[in-house]
């Protein structure tokens, strides 16, 4: 009897753990859409692309209508499935002249893994330096509990979405209209 119970309960426990880690909404944020993000959390920080050239985060916001913060890691299967879709949307919007930027918030275990993932799968995105405390503060602020998670702010730092991943999955490139609704284009 114990063997039967054990053989049926272990798969259920594994599924529950996987759903908690990778499933559903990645942010149970209590930060309301439409609220102003506390820019002090990222103030004075810099981001860089694969070429290692640094740029102040304030310039990224000043130059873009939409800034997407993408929490992900190369070791995460749902991330590896979602990243190509985000990269394709990003590329299409950039080619259409839309002012959008993605900032990778790595949950990789090493800097080498992070850089390899960026080179292999990402668009020409920015990232905070590996191990940056900014990522942790930002994740805590938005209560990011799983990956992949997409948090979207506008260029003024107003929260546009705390559920960007599901919006992308549902709307694909049409997400631009949702994210910029009511904003001057």
UniProtKB/TrEMBL annotation:
GO CC annotations on file: nucleus
Biological process annotations from GO: negative regulation of protein ubiquitination; negative regulation of Wnt signaling pathway
MF (Gene Ontology): thioredoxin-disulfide reductase (NADPH) activity
Classification via PROSITE patterns: THIOREDOXIN_2
Domain Thioredoxin, chain residue ranges per copy: 28-185
InterPro entries: Thioredoxin-like_fold, Thioredoxin-like_sf, Thioredoxin_domain
Protein origin, superkingdom: Eukaryota
Signal peptide: none
Annotated Pfam families: Thioredoxin_8
Listed PANTHER family: NUCLEOREDOXIN (PTHR46472:SF1)
Protein name as catalogued: Nucleoredoxin-like protein 2
Annotated source species: Galendromus occidentalis (western predatory mite)
Gene that this polypeptide is encoded by: LOC100902937
